[in-house]
Design a protein that fits this description.
The chain is α/β, with parallel strands linked by helices. It has helices spanning about 20-30, 40-50, 90-95, 130-145, 165-170, 190-200, 220-230, 240-245, 250-255, 265-270, 280-290; strands spanning about 5, 10-15, 35-40, 55, 75, 105-110, 120, 150-155, 160, 175, 185, 185-190, 205, 210, 220, 240, 260. Strands 4-3-2-5-6-8-14 form a seven-stranded parallel β-sheet, with helices on both faces. It has a two-stranded antiparallel sheet with strand order 1-13. Helix 1 crosses helix 6, helix 3 runs parallel beside helix 4 and helix 7 (about 220-230) crosses helix 11 (about 280-290). The longest helix has 16 residues, at about 130-145.
Length: about 290
């Protein structure tokens, strides 16, 4: 079982304190820890302050030469930029930290594995990103591992939760790729991801890389059909790959070209118990939370 972090953690800095970051920050604040969230917008800063954390506004593409706040724990949840093969934001952030933090957690993506043709994938599989977005994430992983070999990297697949569901697509009956021409999809509920990130940052885990997923990959239609049933509507139509290429964005197609089934055995071995190990329960809870807003 993981051990607790030795010594006091006086300050946690969360880079990219959005939906996941705020969830983690709230748990840390509840433990009477000092937490600072780095965000870009005024609205995001207000949200961070509303749960009792400090907020600073910075544009990661224009950090300048000013040092970032000193911290004992760094939780890096911000994505790379939108272009290129490298994550220049990561390099700028690490260069502006006063010292190497005691604890580091980085949320990456399972896209670093590339297309695995439906194979089961664990953390021992070499990275082979085919898309630029995957290459940027792989570069970010390399940078943070070189900077701090004790960092924990969480490879997350599709994140779902309240206000993160394809409800409009289902209600508008937008088609999806037919399973005969598509691959496997993997997912993690945002509340589970926040728990994983919190534990990775407050415990000593034996490995440096974990697949942060529910461990239950499905065909894409299974996910959409379950959502349609919960919404009380008919399943969305299926289309061929040729038609998908004429209708879908390049970004969406890049996701559909990759197929893999992620194993979360290493994560389970830490003692992690998912709130939503069945995504159907996660979908239902997410829709309920949306209706309550």
């Amino acid at each position: 079982m993981p051990a607790s972090v030795a010594g006091p953690i006086r300050h946690t800095l969360i880079i990219g304190c959005g939906d996941t970051g705020v969830r983690v920050a709230a748990r840390l604040v509840a433990s009477a820890e000092l937490v600072t969230g780095l965000v870009r917008s005024q609205a995001s800063a207000a949200r961070v302050r509303s749960i009792g954390a400090r907020a600073i506004r910075r544009d990661l593409d224009q950090l300048g030469t000013e040092k970032l706040p000193d911290c004992d724990r760094l939780l890096y949840f911000a994505p790379p930029g939108r272009a290129g093969h490298a994550d220049y934001r990561m390099g700028d952030v690490l260069a502006r930290l006063p010292r190497v933090p005691t604890q580091l957690v980085y949320i990456s993506t399972s896209g670093v594995y590339g297309d695995c043709q439906g194979d089961w994938v664990d953390e021992t599989r070499p990275v082979d990103p085919q898309s630029e977005r995957g290459q940027r994430r792989a570069d970010a992983e390399r940078q943070i591992a070189d900077y701090a070999p004790h960092a924990v990297i969480l490879r997350a697949p599709g994140i779902y939760g309240p206000n993160r569901l394809p409800v409009s697509r289902v209600l508008d009956r937008e088609p999806i790729l037919d399973d005969a021409e598509g691959g496997w999809s993997n997912r993690i509920h945002i509340d589970d991801l926040a728990t994983i990130a919190y534990r990775a940052g407050t415990e000593r885990w034996p490995h440096s890389i974990y697949n942060a997923c529910d461990g239950l990959p499905t065909r894409l239609s299974t996910y959409y059909d379950a959502l349609a049933e919960l919404l009380g509507v008919e399943p969305v139509p299926r289309i061929s790959w040729a038609e998908a290429e004429s209708r879908f964005s390049a970004m969406r197609l890049s996701f559909l070209r990759e197929s893999r089934r992620l194993s979360n055995r290493r994560l389970v071995d830490t003692g992690f118990e998912s709130i939503f190990c069945d995504f159907r329960e996660g979908l239902a809870a997410s829709l309920k939370a949306e209706s309550a807003d």
